[in-house]
Design brief:
single chain; 326 residues; alpha/beta; Rossmann fold; 6-stranded mixed beta sheet; 18% strand
């Protein structure tokens, strides 16, 4: 069989495209997520959604493990590192020492971990949900909405990532209601809706008419008692119509996308990624139900939001554990 020059060139071109395509597929960054709770849990869901979005775009190959116990976390980290994963994403609250030891043993693997502590050279970067800015704005809404001047706050654990959101929320509420008081309780669990619900009921019995729902279960209690609530991390207003005034939302896409790009181009290093959760970076926003909030408060919140975005107003970061007012 004789091949024309044009046929040879066409065949070579097609082969080149195939080789190039195969190489591109082989070079797709592999990313693993390791989570101690189900991916449906609000905090973890933000990471999972951002990683799935990157996978859908074709930027990464994404695999994950959920419900990994603290005692098993180190083993899972090592298995992913050994398998050739280029980036491991997860949260290491409560198992910092073990996780950092794994990272040190695999310096060629990038680790991006939710942590209250600093990065570790050369490959252990940290992030946290610094959505204190929209939390402040949601506090403004809550303060104005409270008629009893008592707001209940139910949190998981009194750790910096929770504390800073609560304090910001409290400061925002005081801006629109100087008489407001707070009832604060931590249920010492990341996922125990019945316990959170019970705590919320106790606060309502003590006079709270607006609830800060840092944990699942609080909004359910609000619905049952006809009270209002403020959401955290995700927008659950569709699930609780007429109840959720506003929610401070966390968007992990900026954090995840920047980390992926850095690993892909070889520039990844140990850094603090917290800034990418700030509103100006696209990592945080406020969802507000204008049908439940007065027009003047909507205007005040929007004005304050603009000041946060342009840097003329700074929401203070306070990592100390909040307490109930006397």
């Amino acid at each position: 069989m004789k091949l024309s020059r044009r046929g040879v060139i066409a065949g070579a071109t097609a082969l080149g495209i195939l080789v190039s395509s195969t190489a591109a597929m082989a070079e797709t960054l592999k990313v693993a997520g390791i989570f101690t709770l189900p991916v449906e849990q609000q905090w973890i869901s933000r990471i999972h959604i951002a990683l799935n979005a990157a996978a859908k775009r074709g930027d990464i190959e994404y695999v994950y493990s959920e419900n990994v116990s603290n005692t098993d976390y180190e083993r899972v980290m090592r298995e992913y590192a050994e398998s050739g994963v280029g980036l491991v994403v997860g949260e290491v609250f409560g198992l910092e020492r073990a996780a950092r030891k794994v990272a040190a043993d695999y310096p060629e693997t990038a680790f991006l971990m939710g942590s209250s502590f600093k990065p570790q050279e050369p490959n252990f970067s940290t992030f946290d949900n610094f959505i204190h800015e929209p939390a402040y704005l949601s506090g403004m809404v809550a303060g104005a909405a409270s008629k009893s001047n008592v707001i209940g706050m139910v949190g998981g654990y009194a750790i910096p990532e929770v504390n800073r959101l609560m304090h910001a929320f409290m400061e925002g509420a005081r801006e629109t209601n100087s008489d407001v008081k707070f009832l604060v309780n931590f249920i010492d669990s990341w996922y125990d809706p019945p316990k959170a619900k019970e705590s919320a009921f106790a606060m309502m019995d003590a006079g709270a008419d607006v609830m800060y729902a840092e944990r699942f279960g609080v909004s359910d209690a609000s619905v049952e008692r006809g009270k209002l609530a403020i959401g955290n991390v995700i927008d659950t207003s569709a699930d609780y119509p007429g109840t959720i005034l506003a929610s401070a939302l966390w968007h992990m896409e900026p954090t995840i996308d920047i980390a992926i790009a850095a690993v892909a181009d070889g520039s990844y290093k140990a850094e603090d990624y917290s800034q990418y959760s700030f509103m100006a970076k696209g990592g945080g926003s406020l969802a507000m139900d204008a049908s439940l909030v007065s027009a003047d408060i909507v205007a005040a919140v929007n004005a304050r939001s603009a000041e946060i975005m342009d840097g003329s107003f700074t929401v203070k970061i306070n990592d100390e554990a909040p307490v109930s007012d006397n």
